[in-house]
Amino acid sequence: MALDLASLLGRRNPPLIGLDISTSGIKLVELSLGANSNYKLERYGSEPLPRGAVVDGNIENIEQVSEAIRRVIKKSGTNVKNAALAMPASAVITKKIILAAHLSEQALEVQVESEANQYIPFAMDEVSLDFCVLGPVANSEEDIEVLLAASRKEKIEDRVAVIEAAGMQAKVMDIESYAARAAIDRLIEQQPNAGQDQIYALFQIGAKTTYISILLNGQVIYERDQQFGGSQLTQDIVRNYGLSFEEAEAKKKIGDLPDSYEMELVEPFLESAALEVTRAIQFFFTSTPYTRVDQIFLAGGCAVIPGLVDIVAERTKISTTVVSPFKGMDISSNVNEKWLRNDAPSYLVACGLAMRRFG
């Protein structure tokens, strides 16, 4: 579901970059269509954010965030000025509603706004509202299912402001979980039998939060988030080795830490991560009618920590892989493929946003 302003330009697929703004940093992806209409990764890049610039999905320092966007644009080499952005799921109210199929577009808009009043705890002039028709309701030709999404205008305006301060234009405003799902759906289509009737559990381990989506035949059957992420390991490094948070984060990324680091800090962190995944799956079993998961996908910056895949697979007894949203894509000569292997799992949202150019 995306508020798509690009169509106003009258060009079908204007160049568009995906920009993922998270607590820890900015991630950029630019895609084009390569041979046989296959996606091609043209450019990607990331830039860390100072602590406190983005807190719980809210932009607290527009100048710091727009400066980081300028840096990542320069670093990536892109000259594209249009961007697709996303709101955190916690900042967006979504609701599926049933409406009459015969309504004109104008009548549909009026009806959606009327329905939205029931679900949105704010005055309607304080929110941005969008909707899309999902399709006919099963067993009822008279009705259609509509997905509505609403967010506080000020939160959307903050994201638009940082983009404009960086000299760019926001063309699409999506929801982070929907963007990630667009990237994952593409990977599931590459599975045997296009993943039909298989239950996939996606764990995106971010800086502070792990987002869990469980999917079956293109539908999300369960989702939630847990307060666990890579910054816990960074905090352990700060405490153990007397470093600043920024130093700890930098040394964690390049592996420049004492020999005791693996045993003292990484192994306990991996145990904690595996425990979080196991608990989440048990919670899924106890709160839904489902009793199995066929495949676990790990994404996010922590997914590539050596040993995580093995310990999760061992604890859950479920096949586990680290995912790259760029799997099966053509790769431009602008991209360092060796670096990409390590970076790719944390670009799920940015990749899904970049795909909006063609959606």
Automatic annotation (TrEMBL):
SUPFAM superfamilies: Actin-like ATPase domain (SSF53067)
Protein name: Fimbrial assembly protein
InterPro entries attached to this UniProt entry: ATPase_NBD, FtsA/MreB, PilM, SHS2_FtsA
Gene source species: Undibacterium terreum
Gene: pilM
Signal peptide extent: none
Single Gene Ontology BP annotation: cell division
SHS2 domain span: 16-184
